[in-house]
Structure formats: C-alpha cells, structure tokens
Amino acid sequence: MLLRLFFLLLASAALPAAAQSIAFTKDNFGDNKEGLREANRELKDGDTEYNADPARYAQALPHFLAAQQFNPNNAGLNVKIGDCYLHSSTKTAALPYLQKAAKLDATADARTHFLLARALHLSGKWREALAEYQQAQPVGGNTRNGSAETLTANDLQRYMQQCRTGQQLAARPVRVFIDNAGPELNSADSDYGPVVSADESTILITSRRTGSTGGKKDPEGNGFFEDIYQASWQGKKWSRATNLGTPVNTDDHNATVGLAPDGQRMLVYVGTNGGDLLEANLAGSAWTKPKQLGSRINTKYHESSASYSPDGRWLYFVSDRQEGSLGGSDIYKVDMEGRTQPVNLGSAINTAYGEEGVFMAPDGKTLYFSSEGHNSMGGYDIFKSVFENGKWGEPENLGWPINTPDDDVFFVTSASGRHGYYSSDRPGGLGAKDIYRITFLGPEKPPVLSEEDQLLASRLNPVKQTVLAPAVAVATAQVTILKGTVTDDATKQPLDAAIDLIDNASGQTIATFRSNATSGKYLVSLPSGTNYGIVVRQDGYLFHSENFDLPAGAAYAEVVKDIPLKKLEVGTTIVLRNIFFDTGKASLRPESTAELERLQKLLTETPALKLEMAGHTDDVGEAAKNQDLSQRRAQAVVLYLTQHGIAAARLTAAGYGETQPVAPNTTKAGRQLNRRTEFKVTAK
Amino acid sequence: MIQKPLLFIVLLTAPFAARAQVDTVRASTLPGPQLAEKAYNSGLASFQAQSYPAALRSFDQAIAAKPDFAAAYTNRAATRFELKEYSQAQADYDQALKLEPGNYAGYFGRARAQEAQNHLTEAEQDYSEAVKAKPDYAPAWYNRGVLRFEKGDYQAARDDFDGALKADPKLAYAYHDRASTQQKLGNFAAATQDYTQALALQPDLLPALLNRATTERRTGQLPQALKDYDAYLAKKSDNALAFNNRGNARFENKDYAGAIADFTQAIKLDAKYAYAWNNRAAAQLKLEKYAEAAADASEALKLKADYAEAYLNRGHAREMLRQADEACQDWRKAAELGLKVGNDYAAAAGCAGEATE
Description:
The complex is a heterodimer of chains A (684) and B (357). Chain A has four domains: 2-171, Tetratricopeptide repeat domain (Serine Threonine Protein Phosphatase 5, Tetratricopeptide repeat); 177-440, 6 Propeller (Neuraminidase), CATH 2.120.10.30; 476-567, Carboxypeptidase-like, regulatory domain (Immunoglobulin-like); 570-684, CATH 3.30.1330.60. The N and C termini of chain A lie far apart (155 Å). Helices cover 23% and strands 28% of the residues of chain A. The longest helix of chain A has 21 residues, at 623-643. In chain A, the strands form nine sheets. In chain A, strands 8, 9, 10, 11 and 12 form a five-stranded antiparallel beta sheet that branches. Chain B is mostly helical and 357 residues long. Chain B has helices spanning 3-13, 32-48, 52-65, 70-82, 86-99, 104-116, 120-133, 138-150, 154-167, 172-184, 188-201, 207-218, 222-235, 240-252, 256-269, 274-286, 290-303, 308-320, 324-336, 341-348. The longest helix of chain B is centred in the N-terminal third of the chain and has 17 residues, at 32-48. At the A-B interface, helix 10, strand 25, strand 27 and strand 28 of A face helix 2, helix 4, helix 6, helix 8 and helix 10 of B.
C-alpha cells in the first residue's frame, strides 16, 4: 500500500510542470519489475482485443484500465481507454482519459484531437469540442494501428454543426422534468424501448436484465438477450415490471417497439431475418404468440421499430431497405389491411442519415421520431413533425435537455401529451440505459404581479376646501359711558351735583345731568364724534373739569370716574381739562373758550378770589423749553382773563415746566396727564 | 333686572333727553342682534384658529340669538364637518340653503358632507349645483371630477377637470387628476404631459412622478419610468407602494435581483403589504428560487386570503418543487378567485378533478 502511494506521489509530482508521457519501460519502472511485467501483459491483451477487426472495445477496456492503474501517465494508453469508452454505452467516461492524454502529449495527433472532440461533444462541452474538431482538421482519413478509419471533412463539418446546434438549443432549454422511472422499471442492466398505452396505465419495456428468457448473454458484452417486461401505473409509481414470459419472450432477442393506444396489440422486434417486426395480441390478461407482420413490412433488411396509427389501420415503421430509401434507415407508412406497398414518408421526415424510433402520437397527426439528420445536436435526436394540410411540417428538435449529444431514441408520449418516455444512459441512473419519464411543463408560466396606484391627488393629500361665510359687521354702539360718584372731597359724602355736557367745538352745553342725591352716582352717555367738555359743579364748590375727545367711530367704552368736588379754599388746585393749546405753542385753541368763560364767571361771581394760573408739561424735550412753554401758556390764560375784565392783580401766572408731574412720564397716558393747566386759589 | 337693560336702551337711543337719575347699569349688555353677530365673528375666529369646539359653541350662540342667521348655519356646518359630525353638518347646510337658496358655498359644503357619508350620488348633485351657482369656483368642478373618476366615468371626469382648470389654470391637482383620467382612457401621451404640468406647477406633488412612471411603462419607456421612480424615492423613501411599483418596473426590465431588493424594502416598510410579498414571489420564480417563491406567496396569502395572483404564483412554485397536487390546488383556487388561466394550467398539468367555474 505504501509502495503504491509512493508511485502515485511520484506520478503526480512528475505531471504538473511539464507533463510528459511515461513509457512502460524498465527505465521508468526499474524498481517494480514485477508490476511492469504485469502491466505490459495487460497492455498486450488489451491491444489484442483493441486491434481485432472488428475491434472488441468492451473486452479491451478492462486490460487497459488495469495497465493504466499501474502507469496513469502514458498518453497512448489513455487515448485507447478513451477510444474504448467512446465505443461503449458510457461514452462520456472517455473524457478525463482523453484530456489527460492531450496534456501528456503536447504533440497529440489529429486523431487524438478528434477523439477528444468527440468526448467533449458527447459531454455537451460545445465550445471546447469545436476547438478540438478544428484541430482534427484537415485530416480526411486517420489510421489506427494500421486499420483505416474513415473520417471525412464532411463528417467533421457535420459534427461541428451539431455542436453549434447544441449550443443554441442548450441556451434555451425546454421546461421539462426528466425523472428516472425508478427501480420498478429499471435495472442495473440496460432497460429501454418503453411503449405506453394512451392513458399511461400500461407500459412495456425491453430489458437486458438478469433473468432473461433462455439466459443467453450478448457476445459483445451488452448484458443478457432482450426480453419484454410489463408494468402498470399505480397512481404514484409503476408496479414492478414483470417478464412477459413465453410465448412473447423467447431464447432470442425480444424487444417491444410499439403498443396500440388501447394496449390490446403490441409490436415486437425480433433479431431474425436481419431484424423483423411481429405483432402480439392481448387475450384476456395474456399475450398471444407474436406473428409476422408480412412481407410488405418485413424484408431481409433491418426493420427495427414501428408504431400504430390511433385507429390501428396504419403502421409507421423503420427499415433500412434500399428501395426508396433516402439514406440510412427511413420511416415508412403502410396500410395494415390493404395490399399497397409501404410509402417512404419523404424528405420532410427522412434524411440521408438514419431515422429510428418512430412513434405516432394518439392525436394521429404528431409523429415523433429520432434522426441523425435535421438539426441534431449529435447522434440521434428526437424530433416531432405535425401532419397538416396534407404535408409534414418541418421537424422540430425536442430540445435540450431531452436530447443530448448522444443517441436519443424510442420516445413515446401519453395521449395527454403531458408525459413522454424514453431511455437514456444519462448519469445518475440505475445502470447502463434506463427508462426516463419526461414531464412536459409547457412554456414558462408567467408569474403575475400586483400593484396599485394613487391616481387622485386629493385622495392622497387632501387639501382644506372649507368655504366659510365671511365675518359680519357687528352693530357695536359707538358710545362711551362715563359713570362714577360725585363726593365732597373733604367729607367724602355723596353730592348732588350738576353735570354739564359741553361740546367744546361750539362751546354749547349739550345737556346737563345731575348725580343721585343720595348715592352721588352718575352716568353719562357720550356718543362718539364730539370733543366733550364735562363740568361737574355744585354751589359752594369749585367746578370740576373733564375732557372726552371721542372721534367718530370710537368704539364702545366704559369709563368710571369718581369726582371729588373741592370747596373754595385757599390752596385748592383745580385742573382745567378743557383748555387747549396748539401743539408746542402758547396760543389758545377755540375749543378752550367754554372753559375760559367758566373761569371768568367764577372770578366774576367771587370778587375776592385770587388765582395763580399754572402751566405744566411732560418731560419730552428740553426742560428749559418746557419751562418757558408752561410759563407762556399760563400767561396766555391770564391774558385772556384780563382781556375779559378780570383785574390783573387777582391773577398770577406760573410756569412749572416738567417739575411737578402728577403721573409718571413713562406712558402716553401719564404724559397727557402731566401736560395740564391748573389754577390754585391764592385768596378768597 | 328686566328694567335695567331697558333703561339703558333708552339711554342709548335718547341719551340727552332728560337728566338721568340712575343707580347703576351694565353698559356692556348689548342688544340681541349684535350678540349674534359678535358670537358669529368669535366663532369664525375660533374656526380659523382650529378651535372647533369653541367655534361650535359660538355658532350655537349666534344661531340661538338669531335663528335666521344663514351664515352662522353655514359656518356651524363647516365646524361640524371638521369635527366629523357629518350628518349634523349636512343638516346645517340644509338650513343655510333654506335661508339663502342658491348659495354655492352651501351646496359645496353639503356636497362634501354627503361625500363624507358616502352619499355619492347626492354629493355629485350638490357639486353640480355649486358649479351652476358659481362656475368659476374650481374646487366644485374638481371634486365632482374626482367622484366621477371614482365611479369609472372617466370621460365626464376629464370634462370636469377641464372645467376646474378653466376656472383655475394653476390648479396642479386638476392637472394631476386629469392626467390620471387620460391614463384610464388610454391616452398615455396626454397623461404624461399633464403629470409633467402638475409637477411644474407643484414640484412637491410627488405622486405625479409615480403616476408618470406608470404611463411611461405603458408606452414602453422603461428607462424614463425607472428614472421617475428613482426621483420619487430619492425624495420619499418611506413609501412601500413606490418601492413595490419600482420593483415591478425592474421586473419588466428583467432586473429580477433589483426587483427583489425593492420588494424586500417595501416589506421592510410595511410587513403587511401583501402585494410586495406576492411580487417578490414572482421575481423569485424568475430566478428559479422556487422554495423562496412559495414561501413568499404563502406569506401574501396569510395577509390576503382571497389573493388569486398569489395562489397562481405559488402554484407555479409548487409545480417546480414537484408538489404536483398542491400546485393543482393553488391553480384551481386562483381560478375560483377569478384568474381563469389557473384552470388552463391545471388542465395542462393533468390535475385531477373538475375545473372551477
């Protein structure tokens, strides 16, 4: 074991850098002369089979493999192994050996390139195969160990065309499930040739499995002689296939090639007479002994497969007869009950190459068949053609992955067209060829999408649309309510006093009210639009003066003004609210007249009364200017009085400027109160 | 107490007639009509300040003081509309229209109240009256157009949006919705033009981008549509619908991985968005991720049990997962829910049982 590992290591170490073919010589294997001797013996035995005419590849292969185990790195041996595999039922196994051979021998000949191209082609490696086919050119003929091999330029072109077809078809695979029919139908040996009843309830297959009738083995190493087996559909899977036994199966080859749609008649292939077609009937549950279909169908040539028309009247069959052939084996049609000769289906179906495995679908117009011609991707591909308007339509390759670069033959379908059956030696089977069930999924079923839109802007983003009736004009009273209590300033007792309402503009007294004799309360309503002078008077008291200048539109207001009337005492001060000057000047405005007259009257009625007229300002502007203004304003009042008959001696004028505020000058209202004209009783 | 205001009235009306001998008065006690109007104006101010309960109280006072105050009914109705008291709003509009027949504001307001109560025929009638009473009032045209659009009368809706735009050529919403009617009428070029105009007038009217993308998809302008979706999502990335629709556009563009990313984002924003689950299932199908597709479709069906499209897609996924019976059930169910093609699939797949009608 250790020794073998050593050799393996040696071998692999020798390869990568500069791969070189290692010959079976003492120079290379001097330390294992026994092993070398054994390997050479295997090589010789293998060559004997390999070089036979015809070559016995199946027999040669085990010898070559044994020698290859000893020396994996001999280019020539790897080519031979590849060649053997390419002539077996497991052709793709050739690829690694041929690839290795190409690596070991950089100067590989055109034949090696061709074999490698074939292995690549059969493995579906289209691009690489095309490259190798190119290197196989332009050799029109190759030789192997002295035997002539025919490989025409036309053959190479055809192979390359097949690769290109394969590339195209593999790029758009058909949607199918390909399922191994399972151990119920398949065995470790070759199982093929399925035929089904239209309803898929019954299947008949051909198998070379152990237990063949007569127990004979194929001399070419392809297992036992063929027998026919039958199974029925159990709902989810097939029942285990059982050998039909005699009289259908005999010691010779017995293969099923067709089944009537109703499953009552079967077409059987037998190897006699170059290959003939027979028919058996189902009598109850047992098949009758197959009978010859007659000389119109069976000739000395090879009749290999057949299919009934749905009505059972016609038979489509394959024969390599020469008469009327378009090349290779062709498909023919014959009226089973009539006497006419079979008719070749013509060039729409048949080609210069072989056609095989004919099957007429239960619809009576769709013909499935295999062909090496048309646009095959290699070997036999399965095609279908529909008979319409009196002619066969262009055959359609069933596509990848149903068809492969190797032979794909003996395809049948159920009546529904949902399933097809065929045999293939694709990887993953139970051994050799297996029966596969194809489920046709049809064109891709388009997925369906959903979406929604927001098509109305206002539904997505509502906007305010409220329409409101506008505001209304409120009939608000344009009046000022003046109210309060008149009291004696000294005793605080309520006074019954007269309240004169004077329009300063005209000097006219508009109305006179009286305060309540008991409570001293009064209320005067002053409609807007007038500069009111209000004088509260009572005998024995100095009058009290207020001013309300209410422009038109002045809103309703309520003013509470308590009025303390002062008795005529020396030192008493009264503010004259209704004396008005022009702004910044000492000129009396006409609205002052009523107040001045009232003052004149007071002085006239009280002859001993002496007054000091005082002017006051707010603190806006310079103090000196304010002082001057207040002085001049006081003098203006004195002047008015003296001009109206009051002795100047009774009057003095004093300007106090901003020095005696009665309210803070910080507000407009406060400054207004501070801008005032007063008199003070200096004698009475 | 009764005498006092009376006395004051006398004072106000003949203030200088006699020497007043009064004790005390409440000068602020104003006569009835002024109270109604003052309350009304106060209500209006409250409404504008969105103080609807206060507004309602004021309008109540106004109506109590002046039962024939039409404007107060109109505005109380508007207030009740805002308070979602639609039937009462409608009653107030009725009263306002009784007092002031032919007032467009009453018809328009009542139409809105009717619409809010799903009285769509009555709403449409009232909008029509509003349009008649004031043809230059665009919102009445627009709202009637919306109602007509929603009942599938796209031609009439388009006429109304025309009317709205005649009354107000700057009304972006009318352009937008007219575009949508054009889309429904199959006039995709005109629709694209109107959506564009809406965006010019109101660049933040983002739905116009989404809807323009739809019309562009319909006319095979997939790159422009994708650009519009991108522009929309750059400005508003929290809209599951937009991601879903861009996902569909990407799907149409055979960008299935991109579509899945969008559907995933839509799901992230709204895990209950059945459409996004279904659509992601569809994209998974294209990528031959059948188990994921089946799972997504199942999620869509959990959210929307009558979702025919999700059944159909799950049927496809299950077929590929070799769950033939389940696929058949799903296709049949899709057909039962309205997607009749489900029966065709079931038949082609050899499903047992009768097709659903």
